């Protein structure tokens, strides 16, 4: 990169006017930078920061601040923050933690928009850093200055040379990175270099997230023209709901790829000691992040390659499938197996396409998908282009995956093939552009210095060494295509204005109140009666004209069955005796119990037992759970989640993710369940908990789903002391 000119006049230049840019825009794309704590010692970060900016080609004013030095690396030194010109975009603060609050106040006083705080010793140290953390929070709130960190590796805008990290020779490209760990940036850069990926646009090391959070970074960086995809390593979100909203909005234009740390119990403890974050429930986080359109990767070696490929490759069009073009049966089989394992369907190639391929490739070739050229390209690699043209012309094909050794024929067979391979690479770029069908290449020679691979990469076609990595990218592109095609049918994940509080106090609601609450919200729960006397029980059971369930209502009784407070299959002839038996059993087992009545409900028809519940996740807010219910809850562990509120489409996706979904279409003796009705039921449950922040738990288990309706057997709601305006 070019080196910045170093005359002392640079230090007294007037910063560009910040009037038209927000504080975050100025923070992530600074046009002027102050180094507070600049040093004359090459071993100090305050010296290294000035040097990094010069070596990275930053072409805007840089102001070293040091009360003792006069010049650093050719730049005139400013003696104090107070002496800086007004309106600088960013201050890199290389001072001890105790000095940070005062430094931030001084920066704000001279109009600095944002600060990158390197110091540690804050909340990541536990109780020892609590006072300093509180002082930092007070300074941020008082001044309104935007802060990255503390405990951060820095910030880097690769395209402008605004290098506040110090890492050199980061290739320019479309990947914007957000992490809490500087080592993760090093890993990503090295992985990208080894994989010959497309390079980086920007990096933000959030550290402790004292101010600037993941959601704000996603929103801001996704707006940058230079960002093709956002790659995130997270050890915890300070505001999970805001992140979901930011991601759901950003993915409409730019892919967001996330690698999460702290997913295990041990990992969560490590994350807490590292950054002071709370990692939260892995099952909930996985489900709701996918709901927001985030592409989740499980391995550290997948983040760079998936984000890089998604940044340059178009998604698979909805309704279209994948075609594999291979120069070897082994690679073809492995690719097909890996795609199938990830739920990716292969395209059914049409008869006309097969005929074209047969004429092109000859008798030994396999022209069904996967297509195996069977040696037809060994002497003439240009045949690849003709085969790709035929496949991309087929209306069933949404992506072509070439697997094998393309690009290395001149290395494997004869050097004279190099010119043909180079020409083929150019043809492939033209074909993917003209057909509008994405192309992905897996090659044994992807790690070698191959000119035709470089041509493909420069044109936006990923060339990948590993079949598994290539398939991982295909799966991501398939999901992204589906996501974009259904964007209008999805929730923005914004919480509604809270409804008036359902009841005063906290704790478990009695069942009649709980039933009335969800019924008033539009959730159909079937018939029920609160009977105050034994005679009322008889009247209710007689009126339903079918076997009923009786359940005691008493503030002293939580687990009704444990004290004899439940009777099933009660008919008119046994109603009086059953009601009296419940009362006698409860009063005998719970001396002093106040009996408010008995809930009478018709016994549900035979159906599928489901779990429907909701909770307030400490990170993501109101979340609905769905899966197999009744006695199968613990046995199957079949449950998935959605952040509320959500839409009918998302409810259907939720249902389809579970084992229980297989039982809904008349499995063996079970009735056929109306999936539309079940989806509406889930949506309305989500609406309730989204609008009522005082509900900390809602448990409908089991819910009996049959051909006659969706009926919760038990209704349990727990209220918290949350203020009505507190959503999380």
TrEMBL record:
<keyword id="KW-0547">Nucleotide-binding</keyword>
<dbReference type="InterPro" id="IPR036291">
    <property type="entry name" value="NAD(P)-bd_dom_sf"/>
</dbReference>
<keyword id="KW-0436">Ligase</keyword>
<dbReference type="Pfam" id="PF13380">
    <property type="entry name" value="CoA_binding_2"/>
</dbReference>
<dbReference type="InterPro" id="IPR003781">
    <property type="entry name" value="CoA-bd"/>
</dbReference>
<dbReference type="InterPro" id="IPR013815">
    <property type="entry name" value="ATP_grasp_subdomain_1"/>
</dbReference>
<feature type="domain" description="CoA-binding">
    <location>
        <begin position="27"/>
        <end position="122"/>
    </location>
</feature>
<dbReference type="InterPro" id="IPR032875">
    <property type="entry name" value="Succ_CoA_lig_flav_dom"/>
</dbReference>
<keyword id="KW-0067">ATP-binding</keyword>
<dbReference type="GO" id="GO:0005524">
    <property type="term" value="F:ATP binding"/>
</dbReference>
<dbReference type="InterPro" id="IPR051538">
    <property type="entry name" value="Acyl-CoA_Synth/Transferase"/>
</dbReference>
<dbReference type="Pfam" id="PF13607">
    <property type="entry name" value="Succ_CoA_lig"/>
</dbReference>
<dbReference type="GO" id="GO:0016874">
    <property type="term" value="F:ligase activity"/>
</dbReference>
<dbReference type="InterPro" id="IPR016102">
    <property type="entry name" value="Succinyl-CoA_synth-like"/>
</dbReference>
<dbReference type="Pfam" id="PF13549">
    <property type="entry name" value="ATP-grasp_5"/>
</dbReference>
<protein>
    <submittedName>
        <fullName>Succinate--CoA ligase (ADP-forming)</fullName>
    </submittedName>
</protein>
């Amino acid at each position: 990169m070019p080196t910045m000119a170093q005359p002392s006049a640079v230090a007294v230049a007037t910063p560009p006017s910040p009037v038209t840019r927000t504080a975050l825009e100025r923070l992530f794309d600074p046009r002027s930078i102050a180094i507070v704590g600049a040093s004359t010692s090459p071993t100090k970060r305050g010296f290294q920061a000035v040097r990094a900016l010069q070596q990275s080609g930053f072409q805007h004013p840089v102001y070293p601040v040091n009360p003792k030095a006069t010049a650093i690396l050719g730049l005139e030194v400013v003696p104090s923050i107070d002496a800086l010109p007004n309106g600088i975009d960013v201050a890199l603060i290389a001072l001890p933690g105790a000095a940070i609050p005062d430094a931030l106040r001084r920066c704000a006083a001279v109009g600095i928009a944002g600060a990158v705080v390197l110091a540690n010793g804050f909340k990541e140290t536990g109780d020892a850093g609590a006072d300093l953390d509180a002082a930092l929070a007070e300074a941020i709130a008082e001044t309104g200055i935007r802060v990255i960190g503390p405990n951060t590796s820095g910030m880097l805008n690769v395209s402008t040379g605004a290098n506040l990290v110090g890492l050199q020779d980061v290739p320019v490209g479309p990947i914007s990175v957000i992490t809490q760990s500087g080592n993760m940036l090093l890993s990503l850069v090295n992985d990208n270099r080894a994989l010959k990926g497309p390079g980086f646009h920007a990096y933000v090391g959030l550290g402790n997230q004292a101010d600037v959070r993941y959601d704000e970074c996603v929103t801001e960086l996704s707006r940058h023209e230079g960002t093709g995809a956002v790659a995130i390593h997270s050890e915890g979100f300070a505001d999970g709901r805001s992140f979901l909203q930011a991601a759901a909005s950003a993915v409409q234009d730019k892919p967001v790829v996330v690698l999460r740390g702290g997913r295990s119990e041990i990992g969560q403890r490590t994350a807490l000691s590292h950054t002071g974050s709370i990692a939260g429930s892995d099952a909930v986080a996985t489900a709701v992040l996918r709901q927001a359109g985030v592409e989740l990767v499980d391995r550290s070696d997948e983040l760079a390659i998936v984000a890089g490929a998604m940044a340059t490759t178009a998604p698979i069009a909805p309704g279209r499938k994948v075609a594999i073009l291979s120069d070897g049966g082994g690679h073809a089989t492995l690719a097909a197996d890996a795609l199938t394992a990830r739920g990716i369907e292969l395209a059914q190639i049409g008869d006309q396409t097969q005929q074209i391929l047969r004429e092109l490739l000859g008798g030994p070739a396999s022209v069904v998908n996967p297509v195996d050229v069977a040696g037809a390209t060994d002497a003439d690699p240009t045949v690849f282009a003709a085969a790709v043209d035929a496949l991309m012309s087929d209306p069933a094909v949404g992506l072509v995956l070439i697997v094998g050794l393309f690009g290395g024929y001149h290395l494997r067979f004869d050097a004279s093939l190099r010119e043909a391979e180079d020409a083929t690479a150019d043809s492939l770029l033209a074909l993917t552009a003209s057909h509008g069908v994405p192309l992905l290449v897996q090659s044994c020679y992807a790690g070698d210095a191959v000119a035709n691979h470089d041509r493909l990469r420069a044109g936006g076609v990923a060339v990948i060494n590993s079949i598994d990595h290539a398939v991982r990218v295909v799966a991501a592109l398939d999901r992204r295509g589906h996501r974009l095609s259904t964007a209008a049918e999805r929730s923005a994940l914004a919480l509604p204005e809270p409804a008036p509080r359902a009841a005063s106090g906290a704790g478990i609601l009695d069942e009649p109140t709980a039933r009335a609450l969800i019924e008033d919200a539009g959730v159909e729960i079937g018939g029920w009666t609160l009977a105050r006397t034994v005679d009322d029980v008889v009247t209710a059971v007689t009126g339903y004209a079918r076997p009923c369930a009786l359940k005691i209502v008493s503030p002293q009784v939580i687990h009704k069955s444990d004290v004899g407070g439940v009777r099933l299959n009660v008919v008119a002839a046994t109603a009086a005796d059953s009601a009296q038996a419940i009362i006698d059993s409860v009063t005998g087992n719970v001396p002093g119990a106040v009996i408010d009545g008995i809930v009478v409900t018709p016994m549900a028809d035979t159906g599928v037992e489901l779990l429907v519940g909701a909770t307030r996740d400490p990170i993501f807010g109101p979340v609905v759970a769905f899966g197999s219910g009744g006695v199968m809850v613990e046995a199957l562990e079949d449950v998935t989640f959605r952040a509320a509120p959500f839409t009918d489409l998302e409810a259907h996706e939720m249902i389809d993710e579970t084992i229980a979904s297989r039982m809904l279409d008349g499995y063996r003796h079970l009735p056929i369940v109306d999936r539309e009705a079940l989806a509406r039921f889930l949506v309305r449950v989500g609406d309730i908990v989204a609008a009522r922040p005082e509900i900390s738990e809602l448990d409908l288990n089991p819910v009996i789903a049959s051909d006659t309706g969706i009926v919760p057997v038990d209704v349990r709601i727990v209220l918290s002391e949350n203020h009505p305006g507190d959503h999380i």
